[in-house]
Amino acid sequence: MARRDEIECWLTDMDGVLVHENRALPGAAELLQQWRDEGKPYLVLTNNSIYTPRDLSARLRASGLEVPEEAIWTSALATASFLKSQMPGGSAFVIGEAGITTALHEAGFIMTDTDPDYVVVGETRNYSFEAITRAIRLISAGARFIVTNPDATGPSAEGPMPATGAVAALITKATGMEPYVVGKPNPMMFRSALNRIGAHSENTGMIGDRMDTDVVAGIEAGLHTILVLTGISDQAEIEKYPFRPDEILSGVSELLRTEPFESDEI
Question: Which sequence positions are flagged as catalytic?
Answer without folding.
Answer: 13, 15
